[in-house]
Write a sequence for this structure.
């Protein structure tokens, strides 16, 4: 407890003859000192807050970059009994011969580099594999099978809600289930153009659908190429699809290309087509030597955009 002596001066706001005399200059100096200290404290806390905010902002940006550029991993391998190797990719590999590996080696590499990978052998001619280990939260990867229809889907559909209603699906149905039902509608409601199925999809996506009952392959990429998809030919003549270009590069050599955006491939139709302009021809332009691909696919016609980046 602090005691105050009666002899101690007591400061009041009233003028008094007994009040201590303080020089104005001393008051000014004291006030300036307080102001300077307050300013320094304010400056210190401001910088501390900004530094903390900057650190959090930097961490958020790094997390976003990781989500956006995290490596992908899905793989589909199809023998010539399911799909004939595209002539354009065969020619690209012939122009610039480069080392290749077999489909089995490619699949083994995929599994070894992705410990949590799931692989499926569908008969003697089809192999599918995927992993969630390197999945991006902004571009999820999913797999489903129903009625012997297998589907690998990567991406997000912006109009999933309306498509659920269109196909009579429950609210719990995700993109991969929707894609299987859309394919069934394409298969069972003939003539139902494949371009209508993918043309109604809005968002970022790439998918591989294989119908085991009819040995039909159906592959597509979104119109802006937001989800990467590549295809190539292995040493033993399998057509390989993946979202990882580096994975296919070692197995396919120069028989490799970016799958054209805004396009689909259906073995039931028999050729590669643009779903925005189904009648427009798609040509393969030989790539430069320094590029990892052997060809670049483009959609012809004045109303068509380049099908690859």
């Amino acid at each position: 407890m602090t005691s105050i002596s009666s002899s101690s001066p007591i400061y009041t706001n009233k003028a008094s003859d007994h009040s201590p005399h303080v020089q104005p200059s001393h008051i000014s100096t004291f006030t300036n000192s307080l102001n300077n200290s307050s300013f320094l404290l304010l400056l210190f806390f401001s910088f501390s807050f900004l530094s903390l905010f900057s650190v959090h902002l930097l961490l958020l940006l790094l997390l976003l970059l990781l989500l956006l550029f995290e490596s992908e991993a899905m793989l589909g391998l199809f023998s010539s009994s399911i799909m004939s190797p595209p002539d354009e990719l065969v020619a690209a590999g012939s122009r610039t011969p480069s080392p290749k590996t077999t489909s089995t080696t490619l699949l083994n590499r995929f599994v070894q580099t992705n410990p949590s990978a799931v692989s499926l052998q569908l008969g003697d001619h089809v192999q599918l594999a995927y992993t969630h280990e390197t999945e991006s939260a902004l571009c999820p990867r999913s797999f489903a099978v129903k009625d012997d229809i297998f589907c690998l889907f990567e991406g997000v559909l912006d109009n999933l809600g309306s498509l659920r209603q269109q196909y009579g699906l429950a609210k719990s149905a995700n993109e991969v289930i929707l894609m299987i039902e859309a394919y069934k509608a394409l298969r069972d409601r003939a003539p139902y153009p494949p371009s209508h199925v993918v043309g109604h999809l809005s968002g970022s996506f790439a998918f591989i659908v294989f119908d085991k009952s009819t040995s039909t392959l159906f592959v597509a990429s979104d119109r802006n190429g937001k989800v990467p998809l590549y295809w190539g030919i292995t040493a033993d003549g399998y057509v390989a699809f993946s979202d990882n270009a580096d994975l296919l590069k070692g197995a396919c050599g120069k028989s490799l290309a970016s799958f054209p955006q805004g396009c689909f491939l259906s073995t039931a139709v028999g050729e590669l087509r643009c779903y925005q302009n189904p009648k427009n021809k798609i040509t393969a332009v030989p790539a430069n030597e320094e590029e990892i691909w052997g060809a670049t696919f483009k959609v012809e016609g004045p109303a068509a955009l380049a099908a690859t980046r």
About this structure: The chain has two domains: 22-69, 72-299. Confidence is low (pLDDT under 50) at residues 1-34, 62-71, 303-309. The CA atoms of residues 93 and 255 lie 4 Å apart.
